[in-house]
């Protein structure tokens, strides 16, 4: 057990072992018998050994005054502990601790007698022969035997420890299996409860159907009575018809006298009928041509949108607000387009200086410039009307039956909510994309009504807070009960998704939309963060279900327009001390970052044409499943801050948007019948 022992401990251990020795008759005493002798017997037995040692001279004398030569023999643990206790009484607690530590770290090694200079390990015997048995004074030999026995005991202890460890592992596996079985039992109980509820519902439906059958039988008997009455009335009408026929014959005779007078005007009437038929044919031809032109307009409009890309990315930089520091020159640059300054900007350059890097001379390293290219870039001076002008044609695609999804992405305080909903105060110049998009749809629908199209609009507005869906249009006692909302299929085999317990409000004018937006602002979850005094801590999803019908031609179309204001993304600071409020913000931030990461994975999976798209990994992507697939048109606004302190977050947002801009999700398809 102990690798080495110090010379001082070896000598002291040998001295302690020599004191109780007595000479045994057999000259090779067992360890048990040696430990049971009395001290007086040990002293008597030791006297002949001392005399023998004196008679052998200086060459055979056993000495303990050579601390420089370490002993290779080991002392059993019990003997070492006794020695350590005796030494500790003389040298104090500090020395006893060191000796005990040395004894604990020793490892057993084979007992090899060491021959010191000038001495011999074994006294010479008469005639030059070695003794056949261990003499009683051969303490090292006896100690070697004890060490061998101690080694066997330790091996046995190690074997028992391994068996104990195996039994503990088996016990732990059994506990885990019991826990898994308990979880499975609870799951099966939940399934049983659902099946029972479905059975009760089926019984209730059967009862309702029976009531309907009885009601239909009553109506059938009523209808049979009506049929009999109508038959009677038919007989009466036939009698009346015969009377009228006779009167008609008399009238015809009178008309024959006036045919001569009407013959002169028949030619004129015939000519007028020809002109009317020609005009009706011309009108039908023009209507057909107008319908063809409308279909051609829709086809060209969709082709134009496809050329621009079914997934497009716009970048918008918000202006510097009052009280914020002015960014250094050159932080954000907007290079001109291929056609010069007259072309709308499509590129953005962001400079970032890293204080951790430096040149060999000690001077700071030059800033690193990052260049990005998007479908359109809006500098800080761009207004809300300029932004909507770029997406107006995309919004109009929803009337043609194409699902459209527009969402704003970026860090907290970068202007996402301002872009989607607008600013406070009701200023028309500050209106966001949601009110402008609905005003545009109402206007275009009114124009298409002259061509025989009729449209209906149904709006809903929900938020996803900590992976929980809540209705932003809830009023009265339904406020704050968004946890009861769930995303479900509209019906068996249907691909349409609905939110249970959420309000779906029909809208037909701008005032109704403004009232809904005002109610949603009051119900939305906001909180103060390090980047924004009033930050949106949830994803808000405004969806407009559009249904169109052309009754004369039997055409129908339907699509949804989804306008999403994503929650602000912030990176977590692991060294920040968290209080109760900060822990809540941390949980919100983790949920936000998880759903945004899932959104990126869904877009990448659609771009790579993967067989499985992880829509259900997040409530946000599951709700927008029909607006993100290959049959939809998608537009992403990446909003960034112009401040230097937000360069790191802005760079992360631009990199994510650049990846999305490189994706191709396929050709959009209209939902027409």
From TrEMBL:
Gene Ontology cellular component annotations, sorted alphabetically: centrosome; early endosome; microtubule; nucleus; spindle
An annotated GO BP: microtubule-based movement
Subcellular location: Cytoplasm, Cytoskeleton, Microtubule organizing center, Centrosome; Cytoplasm, Cytoskeleton, Spindle; Early endosome; Nucleus
Compositionally biased region (Low complexity): 106-117
Spans annotated as Disordered: 20-137, 325-372
Residues where ATP binds: 410-417
Pfam families linked: Kinesin
Main location per the UniProt record: cytoplasm
Composition bias type Polar residues, residue spans: 60-86
Residue intervals of the Kinesin motor domain: 310-663
Molecular function per GO: ATP binding; microtubule binding; microtubule motor activity
InterPro entries hit by this protein: Kinesin-like_fam, Kinesin_motor_CS, Kinesin_motor_dom, Kinesin_motor_dom_sf, P-loop_NTPase
Keywords, ordered alphabetically: ATP-binding, Cell cycle, Cell division, Coiled coil, Cytoplasm, Cytoskeleton, Endosome, Microtubule, Mitosis, Motor protein, Nucleotide-binding, Nucleus, Phosphoprotein
Coiled coil: 150-310
Assembly behavior: Binds NUBP1 and NUBP2. Interacts with PPP1R42.
Summary of the function given for this chain in its UniProt record: Minus end-directed microtubule-dependent motor required for bipolar spindle formation. May contribute to movement of early endocytic vesicles. Regulates cilium formation and structure.
PANTHER family membership: KINESIN-LIKE PROTEIN KLP-3, PROTEIN CLARET SEGREGATIONAL
Membership in a protein family: Belongs to the TRAFAC class myosin-kinesin ATPase superfamily. Kinesin family. KIN-14 subfamily.
Protein name in the entry: Kinesin-like protein
């Amino acid at each position: 057990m102990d690798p080495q022992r110090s010379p001082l401990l070896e000598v002291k251990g040998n001295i302690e072992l020599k004191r109780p020795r007595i000479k045994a008759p057999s000259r090779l005493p067992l360890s048990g018998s040696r430990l049971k002798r009395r001290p007086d017997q040990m002293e008597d037995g030791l006297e002949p050994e001392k005399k023998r040692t004196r008679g052998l001279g200086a060459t055979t004398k056993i000495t303990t005054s050579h601390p420089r030569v370490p002993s290779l023999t080991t002392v059993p643990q019990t003997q070492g502990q006794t020695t350590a206790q005796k030494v500790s009484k003389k040298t104090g607690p500090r020395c006893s601790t060191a000796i005990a530590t040395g004894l604990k770290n020793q490892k057993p090694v084979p007992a090899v007698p060491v021959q010191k200079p000038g001495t011999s390990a074994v006294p010479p015997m008469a005639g030059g022969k070695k003794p056949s048995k261990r003499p009683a004074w051969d303490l090292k030999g006896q100690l070697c035997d004890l060490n061998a026995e101690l080694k066997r005991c330790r091996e046995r202890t190690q074997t028992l420890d391994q068996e104990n460890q195996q039994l503990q592992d088996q016990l732990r596996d059994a506990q885990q299996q019991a826990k898994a079985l308990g979880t499975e039992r609870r799951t099966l109980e939940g399934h049983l409860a659902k099946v029972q509820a479905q059975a009760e519902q089926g019984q209730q439906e059967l009862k309702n159907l029976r009531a309907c059958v009885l009601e239909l039988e009553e109506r059938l008997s009523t209808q049979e009575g009506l049929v009999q009455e109508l038959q009677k009335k038919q007989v009466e009408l036939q009698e009346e018809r015969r009377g009228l026929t006779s009167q008609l014959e008399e009238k015809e005779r009178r008309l024959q006298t006036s045919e001569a007078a009407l013959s002169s005007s028949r030619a004129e009437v015939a000519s007028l009928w020809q002109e009317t038929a020609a005009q009706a044919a011309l009108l039908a031809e023009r209507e057909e041509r107008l319908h063809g032109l409308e279909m051609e307009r829709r086809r060209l409009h969709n082709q134009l949108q496809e050329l621009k890309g079914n997934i497009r990315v716009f970048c918008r930089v918000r202006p510097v607000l009052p009280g914020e520091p002015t960014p250094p020159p050159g932080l954000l640059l907007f290079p001109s387009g291929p056609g010069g300054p007259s072309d709308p900007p499509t590129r953005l350059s962001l400079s970032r200086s890293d204080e951790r890097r430096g040149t060999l001379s000690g001077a700071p390293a030059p800033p690193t410039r990052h260049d990005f290219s998007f479908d359109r870039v809006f500098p800080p001076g761009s207004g809300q009307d300029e932004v909507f002008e770029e997406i107006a044609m995309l919004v109009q695609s929803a009337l043609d039956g194409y699902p459209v999804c527009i969402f704003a992405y970026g860090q907290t305080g970068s202007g996402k909510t301002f872009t989607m909903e607008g600013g406070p105060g009701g200023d028309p110049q500050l209106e966001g994309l949601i009110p402008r998009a609905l005003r545009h749809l109402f206007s275009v629908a009114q124009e298409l009504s002259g061509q025989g199209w009729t449209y209906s609009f149904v709006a809903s507005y929900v938020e996803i807070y900590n992976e929980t869906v809540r209705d932003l249009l809830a009023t009265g006692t339904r406020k704050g009960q968004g946890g009861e909302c769930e995303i479900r299929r509209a019906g068996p085999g249907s691909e349409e998704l609905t939110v249970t317990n959420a309000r779906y409000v029909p809208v037909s004018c701008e005032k109704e939309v403004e009232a809904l937006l005002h109610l949603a602002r009051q119900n939305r979850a906001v909180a103060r963060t390090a980047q924004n005094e009033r930050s949106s801590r949830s994803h808000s999803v405004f969806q407009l279900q559009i249904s169109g019908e052309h009754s004369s031609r039997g055409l129908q179309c339907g699509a949804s327009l989804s306008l999403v204001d994503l929650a602000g993304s912030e990176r977590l600071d692991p060294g920040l001390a968290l209080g109760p409020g900060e822990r809540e913000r941390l949980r919100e931030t983790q949920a936000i970052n998880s759903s945004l990461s899932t959104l990126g994975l869904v877009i990448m999976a659609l771009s790579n044409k993967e067989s499985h798209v992880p829509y259900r990994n997040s409530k946000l992507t599951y709700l927008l499943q029909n607006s993100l697939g290959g049959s939809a048109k998608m537009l992403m606004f990446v909003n960034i801050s112009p401040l230097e302190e937000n360069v790191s977050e802005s760079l992360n947002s631009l990199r994510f948007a650049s990846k999305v801009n490189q994706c191709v999700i396929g050709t959009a398809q209209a939902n027409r019948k």
